[in-house]
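Intended use. Records like the one below are meant for learning the mapping from a protein sequence to its folded structure. Do not use them to infer anything beyond what is encoded.
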Amino acid sequence: MEWSEALTLNGNIELFQVTNNQVYNMNNIGIDFIDEESGMGSLGARAGYCGSNKVLNIHSIYDGTM
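Structure written out for the chain above:
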């Protein structure tokens, strides 16, 4: 089984909005904002807004449900 994110912002991204989304039935991460990933320094996702999203039924091997 592969592990994935439903919605990911990665890279030199700023002043973004992630709003009014429905994310459900995923096997790892619902919404992911990545900063300082290997080789990127500090040019990751930053200075953004995330709100009014509904994230349901997200499971991972780390939460003991899989």
